[in-house]
Specification:
Blueprint: H1 3-39, H2 42-45, H3 57-63, H4 70-80, H5 99-110
Helix pairs in contact: 1-5, 4-5
The structure holds heme C (HEC).
Length: 117
């Protein structure tokens, strides 16, 4: 085996190993966020892939996919509620969610709300 092939294998291995913890963390976060969404009745108004009272979580992910301010905007929107992005029906405020919980929820929604089961 020549040097460049070995080099390539090593490079691939390092890349895979460095990505692994990230994907594990994302799936733990997904599980926590899905549980939070259930506990806070978000899923009564939002389904992953179809509109109920509010837009589907996948539609939200798509709408904000290239918006660099999406995370901050959506955290504040979930906290305070309101209307105007999708129509006239307002979302109620969720004032008891912590900043960390809001971050978890928004991160999960922007990843397209991957299911955890
Ligand atoms: C009573 C129904 C209801 C509940 C409960 C609810 N939502 Fe909503 N949600 C809505 C509606 C309606 C909209 C659309 C608001 C608009 O047009 O600006 C919305 C919009 C959103 C958006 C997109 C906001 C935007 O401006 O684009 C996010 C993100 C969101 N909801 C997350 C959540 C989360 C997380 C929870 C639980 C903590 C939750 N929602 C609970 C009805 C609800």
């Amino acid at each position: 085996m020549d040097f460049s092939k070995q080099h390539m294998k090593f490079f691939l291995l390092v890349t895979l190993l460095s990505l692994f913890p990230l994907s594990v963390k994302a799936s733990i976060d997904d599980a926590k966020a899905a549980a939070l969404a259930k506990q806070n009745a978000c899923l009564g108004c939002h389904a992953v892939d179809k509109k109920i009272v509010g837009p589907s979580l996948q539609a939200i992910a798509k709408k904000y996919a290239s918006d660099p301010n999406a995370s901050a905007f959506l955290k504040n929107k979930i906290l305070k509620g309101g209307s105007g992005s999708w129509g006239v029906v307002p979302m109620p405020a969720n004032a008891k969610l912590s900043d960390a919980e809001l971050s978890l929820l928004v991160g999960w929604i922007l990843r397209g709300a991957p299911s955890t089961n």
